[in-house]
Write a structure and sequence with these properties.
Length: 341
Amino acid sequence: MSSGWHTAEHRSRRIKGMESAQEPLIGADAVFAFTGTALRREEKWAREAAGTGPQEKDLVLVLDDEGRAPFAPASGRIRRVPADRLDPDATDRREWVFLGVDAAGHRHWAALLMPGAADRLFAAGDEVQWQDPRRLAGQVTAAARSGRQPDHDSGDLAAARALLFWHRDHRHCPGCGAVMTVVEAGAARHCADCGRTVFARVDPAVLVLVHAGDRCVLARGRGFPEGMYSTIAGFLRPGESLEQAVAREIAEELGLRPQGRPCYVASQPWPFPHSLMTGFLQEVDRTPLRCDETELADARWFRRKEVLRLLEDSAAGRRGALFIPPPLALAHHLIALWARR
């Protein structure tokens, strides 16, 4: 059945009734950070890359030892480096990870630079800025939302950041303690001493926009900037489904009881360090909040018109006494979806 059959009215009824969605409620044209790529990542390309290793004409997305990537303001893109331009002592080629193949057939890798190597990588006249992944992803996704150019970088940046820092922090075998080597083009590490293979991890988490009638709950985590309110969030526990995690987080952090099943909306990689955020809307009983003060600095009910004002401020680039996450974050889109339905 074509997606055109699901009219706006039909989708609104589904959200209101909290029925399970058969397709994401955020359209394919929605843009949020760490999802954009122009690379093909099929297994056959990874097997080929694992067999040959990096070649001279391959392209490399490099990160410095702080996790920053080189951004070229003139093009609005991450600056990728031909493999043959990287000095042998700039990176450890045994630790490179494969990202995919572009439409021209060029293979792309990611590499973590040795301390100090970033200062020597580009000529003095090159206009390159080393930028934090959040800021960089915000810029490229803003360009995509405005229609200036598509986001072909932030998804690769997410994969590079998550994989390279996972490898950096998991060099030793969890079974025997020996140093492991990178295998499967960067997807895993292998211990030659005991034969154990360990695959790069992804930590799933839930983001939940809690609502009842014409109000929703927004909360301030203890690590948030002053004045920022967002959805509640939490990691899954072993043996727990996504739906169970949604209900548990609502009960733990807000003291509320869900009504019906949560409505899945969309997901977003979040490479800090290697998470997958899954976004839900959940209707609850309208009762007083019991805020978990160990997790949250504050939580409160917001009327729809208040949330719409916060969205207007965000779209205009204004930051008032209260504000919500920027459009690069999935939480922003959950808030907007509920407020504008």
